[in-house]
Amino acid sequence: MKILIWGDSYACCDGVRDINSWWPVQLLRRLTQSTAQPTVHARCKAGASNSRDEWLSRVTLGQHEVTIIAQTGKRSDELWTAVDLENATQPLINYNWVIIGVGANNQFQYGAEDTSGYEEDLVKLVKLASIATGARPNRVIMYSIPYWHLTPNGASEETSKYRQDKYKVEDNSSNQVQIDAYNQIARSVARKRGISFVDITPISAQIGTQAKMVTEDKLHYSPQAFDALFLQPLLTVIQPIHEIENQIRHDQQVASVRISIREDHPIEAEEKSSLTSGCISFFSRCMKGLAACCTYEDEGQSLDGYNMKRRWSR
Q1: Which helix (H) or strand (E) element contains residue 33?
Q2: Torsion over CA: 45, 125, 239, 297 (sign)
Q3: Pairing assessment for the beta strands 140-143 and 196-198 based on DSSP bridges
Q4: Considering only CA atoms, which of 172, 176, 184, 178 is closest in space to residue 208?
Q5: Pairwise CA distance, residues 187 & 210, whole Å
Q6: Mean pLDDT, rounded, of the chain
Q7: 57 burial level (CB within 10 Å; 0-12, 13-18, 19+)
C-alpha cells in the first residue's frame, strides 16, 4: 500500500519526535496490519536550502509506504509549489490514497483576505491528487482546518501580537468565523471534484484546550490527540473501500482456484447456482462501497467513544 499526504504542520506532525507516533505512519500501520518497524528514508527539515529536504518525508513499514509532502507554517500556494516540483522530479503515481490538509496558515497569515487564492490552490492540488491515484477521485480525501486558536498557544496574547507585528492581522477575535469560511471553501471544492471531505474541526474544539492533547509548544497536536482527530475520521472513509477491496481480492483468488480445478469438467446445476450467488454477493459489496465515495461530515464527536453523527451526501 502507498499513501500520499500533503499539508502543513499537522501533516508533518510538528513537535512529535518519534516518527512511529506520527498519525500518517499509524494510519498506514492500521490499514496494513504491519508489525514492521518504520524505516525512515527522508524526513523534512524546516529551513533546508533544498526544497525536497525541506518538505519531503518518506517512511516504509516493510513493503508499505507513506510519503508526506508538508512543512510547518506553509500556505496552500507554497504547498502547491512543493508538490508540483516533487511531481516534476519524481512523478507522483500509483498511490492507493492521497490525503490533503492545508489552509491554517492562509487564515493565520491573511485572515479572510486570501480565500480566492486558497480555492484555486485546492483545485490544482485535487486535480493532481486524482492523477496520483490513477484517476480515482474517491481515493482522495481532504480534511478541514482545526480550531488552532483554541489551543493554549493559539489563544495567547503573544500569538495575537505576533500576527499583528508580522502579518498585520489586526482582528484576532474572528478566527473561528474565518476558519469556518475557509473550511466551507474546502468542502465546496471537495463536493465539486467528487472527493471525500472529513471535518475534524469539531473534535479540535473539544481537545485543543486539553494539555495532554498538545505538544510542548502548546499549539500543535500530540500523539494522544491523533486517534480522535485524524485516524478515526479518516478511517471512516477509507476502511469500507479497503475491506471491500480485500474481499474482492480474496474472491478473485478463490474463483481462480475453482476455475483451474474444474476447467475440464462441465458445470452442474448446483454449481451454476453457486456462481450466481457469488456474483450477487460481489455486486452487493461493490454497492456498499459507494458510500465511501461520498462526503463524510462529522457533526459533533465526543472524545470518549467518538460518538459521531454522520451525514453522507454526494
Answers
A1: none
A2: positive
A3: parallel
A4: 176
A5: 27
A6: 86
A7: buried
Domains of the chain in sequence order: 2-240 (3.40.50.1110)
The answer, yes or no, to whether residue 212 has pLDDT greater than 50, is: yes
Q: Between vectors from CA 110 to CA 70 and to CA 72, what angle results, nearest 5°? A: 20
In which element (H, E) is residue 281 found? helix 269-289
User: End-to-end CA distance of the chain, in Å?
Assistant: 27
Local structure of residue 265 (DSSP, 8 states): S
Q: Which residue has the cell 508538490?
A: 83
CA-CA distances (angstroms) from residue 60 to 3, 34, 64, 165? 10, 10, 5, 41
Report CA torsion sign: 203, 100, 78, 86.
positive
pLDDT for 130 beyond 90: yes
Helix axes 232-262, 269-289, angle to 10 degrees: 160
Whole-number Cα distances in Å, 266 to 18, 236, 255, 262, 271: 59, 44, 16, 8, 10
310: left (phi over 0), alpha (psi -120 to 50) or beta: beta
Q: According to the model, what pLDDT value does residue 301 have?
A: 42
